[in-house]
Structure to design on (274 residues):
């Protein structure tokens, strides 16, 4: 593919009325197909112990984001001495996905919502790793915009791990998986996590599974997997109320001690908001 010089690039931006960020997003779309498998990343905080903050489903751009809870949660991550924060998807609300959706938003479009993430996610001088969820993906469906790449470029402390799923190697024999599934909330709180864990083949199972999307808080130990539904920062919306969907606001701090065979001990601290 031919390379554009600075003059040609400026002319293309003017001719097609797109921003530089939008053009970068288009190029990223061409170079990196969105659903390719994300690589396993290595985050070795210590040979013996890691303390991490866990959360998801912030939905910046929605009128129903609880910014008080968001700020307080990051304050508690900071004072709790976490090594890093992991976000299991849906940094943004997305836009115009169903009739009337725009009226639930206070930031309209991909650019405004990406800027909202850049401006409003608190910085605690620790790395923040995130995957992108289905609401983030709506920007991609509508305009080919990968808001994760934009946030990653703008914030030195925020790091994009890709769409929907990522695996993190925390220590020898200890893998953590962040997952943002697609199905709607089930009749029982643990139903989807159980089915997801049952579907994992023996050689592919993580030691820790962080599940976003459902806006629920739960801890489950099943098939030797420490599974957590990671909560949300979005209060119940009118659409959620009509669908009889509750919102469990909060996050977790996980203390993980590593042994010769993976996890030797795990302690969880729930940080709820009501």
């Amino acid at each position: 593919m031919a390379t554009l010089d600075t003059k040609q690039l400026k002319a293309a931006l003017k001719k097609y009325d797109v921003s530089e960020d939008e053009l970068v997003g288009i190029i990223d779309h061409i170079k990196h197909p969105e659903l390719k498998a994300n690589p396993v990343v290595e985050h070795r905080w210590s040979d013996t112990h890691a303390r991490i903050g866990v959360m998801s489903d912030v939905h910046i751009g929605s009128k129903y984001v609880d910014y008080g809870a968001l700020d307080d949660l990051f304050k508690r991550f900071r004072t709790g001495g976490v090594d890093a924060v992991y976000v299991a998807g849906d940094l943004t609300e997305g836009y115009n996905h169903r009739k009337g959706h725009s009226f639930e938003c206070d930031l309209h479009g991909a650019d405004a919502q990406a800027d909202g993430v850049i401006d409003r996610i608190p910085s605690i001088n620790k790395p923040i790793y995130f995957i992108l969820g289905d609401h983030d993906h709506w920007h991609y469906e509508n305009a080919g915009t990968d808001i994760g790449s934009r946030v990653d470029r703008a914030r030195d402390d925020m790091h994009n791990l890709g769409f929907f799923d990522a695996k993190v190697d925390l220590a020898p024999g200890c893998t953590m998986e962040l997952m943002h599934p697609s199905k709607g909330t089930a009749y029982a709180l643990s139903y989807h996590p159980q089915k997801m864990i049952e579907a994992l083949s023996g050689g592919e199972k993580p030691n820790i599974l962080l599940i976003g999307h459902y806006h629920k808080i739960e801890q489950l130990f099943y098939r030797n997997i420490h599974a957590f539904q990671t909560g949300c920062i979005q209060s119940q919306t009118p659409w959620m109320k009509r669908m009889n969907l509750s919102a469990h606001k909060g996050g977790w701090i996980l203390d993980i001690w590593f042994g010769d065979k993976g996890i030797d001990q795990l302690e969880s601290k729930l940080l709820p908001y009501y």
